[in-house]
Amino acid sequence: MNAYIKFFLTIFLTFQIHAATGIETIEILGGRASQIPIAITPFDEQVQFKQLQAQKINQILANDLIRSGLFDILNTDGVASIPRAVDEVNYSNWSAIQAQFLILGQVLPGTGNDTLEVKWSLVDIFKQKTVMTRILKGKSSQYRAIAHKISDLVYEELTGTKGVFHTKIAFVKKKTQDSYALYVSDYDGFNQKAIVKSQKPIISPRWSPDGKKIAYVSFEKQKPVIYIQDLVSGKRILLANFKGNNSAPAWSPDSQKLAIVLTYSSNSQIYLINHDGSDIKQLMRTYAINTEPTWAPNGEEIYFVSDRGGSGQIYKININTNETKRVTFEGNNNLSPSISADGKLLLFISQKDRKYRVALQNLLNNQYLTLTDGPHDESPLFSPNGHMVLFTYKDYGKTSKIGTVSINGLTKTPINVGSETIMESTWGPITD
Amino acid sequence: MGLNAPFPELESNTAEGSGADLSGSEADSGLGLDSEELAKLKASEVLSERSIYFDFDSFAIKAEYENVISAHASFITETNAKVVLYGNASYEGSHEYNLSLGQKRAVAVRDALISLGVSDANIETVSFGEEYANQECTGSACGQDRRTDISYEGE
Questions:
Q1: What is the model's pTM?
Q2: Residue A39 sits in which domain range?
Q3: Is residue A299 part of a domain?
Q4: A270, A412: one domain
Q5: Domain with A420 in it: what CATH number?
Q6: Which fold has domain B31-152?
Q7: A58, A40 in Cβ contact below 8 A?
Q8: For residue B14, what is the nearest residue in chain A, using CA coordinates?
Q9: Residue A409 contacts by C-beta under 8 Å, 6 or more apart in sequence?
Q10: Tens of pLDDT along A134-167?
């Protein structure tokens, strides 16, 4: 396993530490040893809230950075004095626990009613230098959002890649056989809110790359049809209600078009349609199943699943030339493709020996590794920065849940959004 | 294998709120069964068999269902009845791929009926995929979900 990780990450997770002076390139060579050791002190919180915060800022930061798989969060219990500001940092205390970086801060009352200010610093322990000090202001209701913003700033500073801790996800909650809802929440499951409720199944939500809409499949017309929910206006349009099934919406990178799957009276086939439902055209036609389209970031290729070779495998088609190539060869079936933002990694579900696992394939040389153990993992999607995977998992006889796995395979974390059946999730884009 | 279906019509997308509900409009085609035909449908033992079961990841119609399918083919041809074939799949695998597998099972039954002389116009195929499948089944119990159900309109 480590050899695989080493292979992948030397190519894809070469990232930079910008801290303090100059730029160092760190190559993640796999295993825990490659994680950045960081200490996060409890903040000096001088503001009392009416409602108790479920998690303090340092805990939110730790949970964020753990999820990415790139950080080793150090236990600070044994450290004698907790600094409230940079001038109180005793470097030898922190180098003693092998911290490379330290985050510390204070939560102070803001100038307005019900407001707060978080003054925090990122400190390089090795170099004995302050990397950054910032003050973030907001309402007390933005406590978690401010914490996620700190995580994003730290993440971008230390990895050279934008953080996704401020982003949103959407998922389907099935409460009973006839109660389904599409929810939106923070990426870690907090602040959930239902945006669509239905007595019939909802599947395949896909967040538009511009962040404004979610396309999804509903069975409310006694068969699958595709709707687009506008998150700004709250309105929805019926995108596709053709004869037979309408499903598997996939946004083009510019959010103007979707690839969708229709059946009419034959097997699933892929079509392209404008976001307003106009100008539909068939992408290709075979007697076999063609489904689960997803766009490559270049907007010119669509990856999809077909059983034309006898089992479900992933193929790609160039939408200008129609040139088609098979992409996956390992395993019995390979389903649900998703492409990283840099176009280099293919994420999918690989079925082997009746187990369904999240797998990654390097598209440059087709090397392959599995990130999870199954037995029934589904619908993997890259985080917008490509460093994490959102997916659905299910044990034998249990209800399904959603969680994240880091693409180095080191951290698997549930997203707790309820005891019901949770499934079919999608990840919203990075917003500034 | 050739394509059985003509290239699909692309003009049938219905706008939200127009009242043009697809399932409703197709049911109004005046091809419902009369009371005598309904009675025959109910009385016949072979015609009351409505489910065709398939193996894991399979779309081949097993020999044991030949009688059932040929009885339905004769009845549909005689009465000009309209049927909807609902394909299903077990929960394993992705929701979307299972929608396609369910559809393929519906299409397999459709093709068998057409090969026995039933007109394409009398058949609609819809897949429910795994959406109504038993999500807790293990082993052979999941086989109950790998099926196509034959449903008569107007029944």
A1: 0.89
A2: 2-159
A3: yes
A4: yes
A5: 2.120.10.30
A6: 60s Ribosomal Protein L30; Chain: A; (3.30.1330)
A7: yes
A8: A241
A9: A1, A5, A69, A369, A371
A10: 999 999 999 999 999 999 999 999 999 999 999 9
Flag whether pLDDT at A400 surpasses 80. yes
* Per-residue exposure over A335-347, b if at least 16 CB sit within 10 Å of its own CB, e if not: bbbbbbbeeebbb
Domain positions in chain B? 31-152
In angstroms, rounded to a whole number, what is the distance separating the alpha carbons of residues A40 and A71?
11
User: CB-CB: which of B14, B15, B125 is closest to A263?
Assistant: B125
- Hey, are the CB atoms on A378 and B16 less than 8 Å from each other? no
Q: What is the DSSP string of A90-132?
A: -HHHHHHTT-SEEEEEEEEE-SSTTEEEEEEEEEETTTTEEEE
| Together in a domain, A98 and A229 | no
| pLDDT tens for each residue of A56-75 | 999 999 999 999 999 999 99
Distance from the Cα of B34 to chain A's closest Cα (Å) equals: 25
Spatial contact of A207 and A214, defined as CB atoms under 8 Å apart? yes
Which residues in chain B touch residue A268, judged by CB atoms under 8 angstroms apart? 99-100, 103-104
* Distance (Å, whole) CA B144 – CA A160: 51
Number of folded domains that form chain A: 2
B103 touching chain A per CB within 8 A: yes
CA dihedral A365, A10, A72, A148 (to 10 degrees): -70
Chain A, window 92-131: residues with a beta carbon less than 8 angstroms from a chain B beta carbon: none
What is the least distance, in Å, from the CA of A316 to any CA of chain B? Answer: 16
Q: Which residues, at least 6 apart from A229, have a Cβ–Cβ distance to it below 8 Å?
A: A182, A195, A196, A213, A214, A215, A216, A235, A236
Q: Tell me, yes or no, if A253 comes closer than 8 A to chain B by beta carbon.
A: no
Candidate from B13, B103, B126 with C-beta closest to A240 = B13
Q: How confident is the model at residue B31 (pLDDT cuts 50, 70, 90)?
A: low
Task: Determine, for residues B13 and A223 on separate chains, whether the beta-carbon distance falls below 8 Å.
Answer: no
